[in-house]
Amino acid sequence: RVVESAHVTVRNCRTRNNQVWGIFSGFADYFTVAHNTCANSVEEHGIYVSNSGDRPIIRDNVCYGNRDQGIHMNGDASMGGDGVISRAVVERNVIHDNGVGGGAGINCDGVTDSIIRNNLLYNNHATGIALYRIDGGSGSSRNKVVNNTVVQASDGRWCLLIVGGSRNNIVRNNILLHTLTYRGSIAIDQASWPGFSSDYNLVSGPFSLDGDATAISFAQWKAAGQDLHSATATAAQILIDPLAANYRPKDPGPAIDAGEATYAPKLDLLKRARPQGAGVDVGCYEGP
Q1: Reduced 3-state DSSP string for 144-165
Q2: DSSP class of residue 77?
Q3: What pLDDT digit, counting tens, does each position of 229-244 carry?
Q4: Torsion sign, CA atoms 39, 69, 94, 179
Q5: Helix locations, the chain, DSSP H
Q6: pLDDT (mean) for 195-204
Q7: What are 33-64's pLDDT values in tens digits?
Q8: How far is 52 from 21, CA to CA, in rounded Å?
Q9: Residues forming a β-bridge with 151
């Protein structure tokens, strides 16, 4: 627990079977959480960054088996401060088998001007990545969600959910896979639509323009002006062996060289240089 502090690092720790949280912070600016394993929190989350703490770095962690969120960031306006967590970097985390109690693998309430990149999320039972506002001082706006791989459990919700006035978010080079017919790759509400831009992703399943109430097809989503260079594909077509938890892309395959370089990170999940071939690969891995 790190509160009312700055420039604190929690590194190389294992937190397992905790009653509420594995690692928690409140009003902690420049807080770094790196190379930790946070598993099986009984009531809530693996990593919880809260209370208007700006510029956190959440990097190279493994979060699994937590009842609610793997990683949760909450501005908590009701607790004082501006209620916003700004300029967070969430990268190269492996997040799986969380969410039987709800939430998201990566959960962002009042998180702005931040980067979520190179994360692998699989078999999570609620949402994959969520940008929204409930307790935050604003919507989760002006974020970049880039080169993540999200493969939802069969009972999971949307791969990416953007609601609550979370505007001006950029989504690029992600693998967003779901097997359901009524929930799928991306759901956004109309309050979050201004400034939203999504493209160069590999997707499956439906979309939603009203935050989850109604599912639409990929063709209808493209007609609304999104993902014009994206494509649909199954996990079996994209990934080497998802049944054996090998989420690297097949080569040749639809993820190879199919991304867009503008927002792509220079390294992938394994810290390999990107690109390796003629172009940027889609998802958190660069090459098989």
Answers
A1: EEECCEEECCCCCCCCEEECCC
A2: G
A3: 999 999 999 999 988 8
A4: positive
A5: 218-223, 235-238
A6: 97
A7: 999 999 999 999 999 999 999 999 999 999 99
A8: 18
A9: 122, 177
